[in-house]
Amino acid sequence: MLPDTLILPVIRAALAEDLGRAGDVTAAACIPEGARMRARFAARKPGVLAGIDCVRLTVLEMDPKASITLRMKDGDPFEAGAILAEVEADARAFLSAERTALNLLGRLCGIATLTQSYVEAVAGTRARIADTRKTTPGLRALEKHAVRRGGGVNHRFGLDDAILIKDNHVVVCGGVVEAVTAARAHVGHLMKIELEVDGLNQFDQALRMVAEGRGPDVIMLDNFDNAELTEAVKRRGDHKVVLEASGGVNLQTVRGIAETGVDVISVGALTHSAPVLDIGLDAF
């Protein structure tokens, strides 16, 4: 569960964007002051829950005295028609919070649900499904939380928590060996180093460095076909290095990729292409 202090800035920014300069003019015009309402957040489709605290905090931000009952917790699967939360609140305040709450909840449930589909697709293999930094600006913490609730794992959170040497870094540094050597010299023993390679030639260079005890901790096999992935796994043998497949991953290809024996499959689509899950708000 994410701490409220991490979620609240996102909610406040979203509400400020929606309320604009004059607030909710529709609610002010149509709803009597002091009116109360009750409503349910209900799933229109089956999925995996993520972001239920966004509902709680969005409503409370608009009406601190609101009564909110969460019927499920993040990570719970649900069927179409499931009641996710019930709210009783000031009607003007709640109707002003409605869209922000639904936007965040639908977005995060969509990510968790898609992640679960990928995790189920590779069941029985050694591969784990990981996200990427291809997230919505400002929503990374929430979206990566949703990936975890769907059964996936998080890649690095940002540029500051792991070294990932990509193709352009290699070009500027003058080669794979030079890039990894520079990275090793720069960081301490707790900082992981990952190297992206674009073919078996670069892979072999990296693997020799691993054998010598000066290589990367993780090798990303970028846009390798399944035959190349299988060959890379074979060449790794007993060397202590994690192999990550990336590029061209979708629900049709992920099983075949996993069956090559790689350890991790990173999937940008988990966050950049997840459809919003259909969740409605029903007053009663």
Key phrases:
single chain, 284 residues, alpha/beta, 6-stranded parallel β-sheet, 4-stranded antiparallel β-sheet, 44% helix, 19% strand
Number of beta strands: 12
User: What best-fitting shape do the alpha-carbon axes yield?
Assistant: elongated
Helix vs. strand class: alpha/beta
Gap from first CA to last CA:
29 Å
Main sheet?
6 strands, parallel
Q: Report the portion of residues in β strands.
A: 15-25%
Helix content: 40-55%
> How is the largest sheet built, in terms of strand order?
6-11-10-9-8-7
Tell me the series of helices and strands, N- to C-terminal: HHEEHEEEHEHEHHEHEHEHEHE
Give the overall average pLDDT: 97
Unreliable spans: none
By DSSP (H or I, 4+ residues per run), the number of helices equals 11
Radius of gyration over alpha carbons?
Answer: 23 Å
Describe the structure.
The chain is of the alpha/beta class. The chain contains eleven helices and twelve strands. Helix 10 (254-258) links the parallel strand 10 (242-246) and strand 11 (264-266). The model has no long low-confidence stretch (mean pLDDT 97).
Topology:
Elements: H1 4-19, H2 25-30, E1 36-43, E2 47-48, H3 52-62, E3 67-70, E4 77-78, E5 83-90, H4 91-121, E6 128-130, H5 140-149, E7 163-165, H6 167-173, H7 176-186, E8 193-197, H8 200-211, E9 218-222, H9 226-236, E10 242-246, H10 254-258, E11 264-266, H11 269-272, E12 279-283
Parallel strand pairs: 6-11, 7-8, 8-9, 9-10, 10-11
Antiparallel strand pairs: 1-5, 1-12, 2-4, 3-5
